[in-house]
Amino acid sequence: MTQETLAEAPYLDVADPTFSIRSQAVLEAREASWYARTNYGIAVLRYDDVMKLLRHPKLRQGSYRWPELSGVHGGLFARWWGAMLLSQEGETHSRLRRMANPAFSPKLITELRPKFQALANKLIDGFAAKGECDFIAEFTEPYATGVICDLLGLPFETWRELADIAAEMGLALGVTFKQDLATVEAATARLLKYAEDLVALKRANPSDDFVGMLVQANADKSQLSDQELLDMIVLAIFGGIDTTRNQLGLAMATFIEHPEQWALLAEQPDLARAAVEEVMRVRPTVTWVTREATEDFTYNDLPIKAGTTIHLFSQSATSDPAVFPEPGFDITAERKPHFGFGGGAHHCLGHFIARGDMTEALKLLAQRLKNPRFNGEVKWLADSGNTGAITLPIAFDPA
Amino acid sequence: MKVDVDMSICLLHGQCVIAAPQVFSFDDDGGLVWVAEVDEAQRADVEAAADACPEQAILLG
């Protein structure tokens, strides 16, 4: 394929605040071409291509230069961002991932499951009798953060403070990062201090829980230095809150639009695990993941230059009619894998925890909240990048 | 110790290659290859790889 045909590929304005990953423009682009041109590099639209490129050896994770591209050079956040697991590649990435893996093992989920259930029930108890709630403020945010508290061995009451710190630090991912720098830096300092205190506590009282496992990995400092240990804990907190909060909100919104599926889940709680996968296929919070070409190469006859940004449109890929001929939301359907946790070397480290906590939450919510419906205006983040509801007022019939 | 991978569910993320590079690797075509029989010294690494596999595709026997 020549440069001429590159110019002919569909164009998607992903910087437009009203751009939607679920828009007709994206559907038409996917129909016409496996990729589209965008403001920043290309967007890959179809299932098979996203699957291949997620783990392509000539691509690296694409957001590692984000602070620099936002005009932020130096400071606590930029240092952390550049050093942490997601921004690393090659041998350093492999070493950090090996050190982190035991703390994120699927074996730990069995012990955590009763805690997830207790947390979900406690939160539902708080609003069940009134038959309505803001599902984000009263369930998904305290739940996602409460799970992190459980992981870190912090009392549930710290959730609000942790959620606020993560939200302030999260301003770094927005377009106003540079203006918000002072807030971001203060939040990063507080989260690092949290991590330091947790590590000190765990060194004094060794254990096999989440932080305990990371502290054990830090015993050989050539494998995981003190700073890398703190950076990893900060990543676990920062990466675990917004994602789960948003994904559970998207789950509720999707089920409200498919009441028969919610009733089915209430009847058959064992479908909860599959329900998490199906929600993440049709409404992932991470609507795309980003890669960057490390050298010139050719893919599908398209020459891709080193440094090119490649958006892998997970949402578009997992509704691709070529692979999902009946793409409607169905928690009983056998499906090919979704890309809601990314893939390849950077596959989400916390996915066993996320899958486990969302499964338990959906199971209990379906049992206790009958006929959920929208109950006022839902405020949404942009329907691109990392999406979800900011407020989600719902009404329901308490079981 | 026997090592096998269920290639019907493997998605080639390569987490096993990261966790146990002496046992799992990618060939030049990007396919996964592994040592089918490993000694006890590699048990910890192989178990770590099986744990880390996002698809839980690694079978140990």
From TrEMBL, chain A:
Keywords: Heme, Iron, Metal-binding, Monooxygenase, Oxidoreductase. One of its GO terms (molecular function) is oxidoreductase activity, acting on paired donors, with incorporation or reduction of molecular oxygen. InterPro entries: Cyt_P450, Cyt_P450_B, Cyt_P450_CS, Cyt_P450_sf. CDD domains: CYP_AurH-like (cd11038). Belongs to the cytochrome P450 family. This is Cytochrome P450. The lineage of its organism: Bacteria, Pseudomonadati, Pseudomonadota, Alphaproteobacteria, Rhodobacterales.
UniProtKB/TrEMBL annotation, chain B:
It holds the Pfam family Fer4_15. The keyword Disulfide bond does not apply. Signal peptide: none annotated. The keyword Iron-sulfur applies. Keywords: Electron transport, Iron, Iron-sulfur, Metal-binding, Transport. One of its GO terms (molecular function) is iron-sulfur cluster binding. Ferredoxins are iron-sulfur proteins that transfer electrons in a wide variety of metabolic reactions. This is Ferredoxin.
